[in-house]
Amino acid sequence: MEVLVFKTNVTSKKKVSMIAPLLTSFPTIRHWNFDLQDCDKVLRVEATGLQPSSVERLLLAAGFDCEELGD
Fold first, then answer.
1. Residue ranges per domain, the chain?
2. At 30, which helix (H) or strand (E)?
3. Pick the CATH number of 2-68 from 1.10.10.10, 3.40.190.10, 3.30.70.100, 1.10.1060.10
């Protein structure tokens, strides 16, 4: 299991609820959450064998910015 961390432009719980079905239905994602209090509106994803670009494309297709944060 790995944890991927992304900077997003998701700013509200309403927007999170729009994205939730996409993240929940992704087969390799075990758990995810947003930290809307963080200045980067961080999305943390726990998954197995998931490429960061897959999450980035998923959010981009939903109309949101998403970029993996490095160490």
1. 2-68
2. strand 29-35
3. 3.30.70.100
Q: How far apart are the first and last CA of the chain?
A: 17
Q: What is the pLDDT of residues 55-70, one digit of tens each?
A: 999 999 999 999 999 7
Question: How much is the pLDDT for 30?
Answer: 96
- Average pLDDT in the 18-26 region? 93
Q: Which residues pair with 42 in a beta bridge?
A: 35
* CA–CA distance, 42 with 60 (Å, rounded to integer): 15
Q: What is the DSSP letter of 14?
A: H
Question: What's the Cα-to-Cα distance from 61 to each of 14, 50, 55, 70, rounded to whole Å?
Answer: 17, 17, 10, 22
Sole residue written with tokens 């998931």: 50
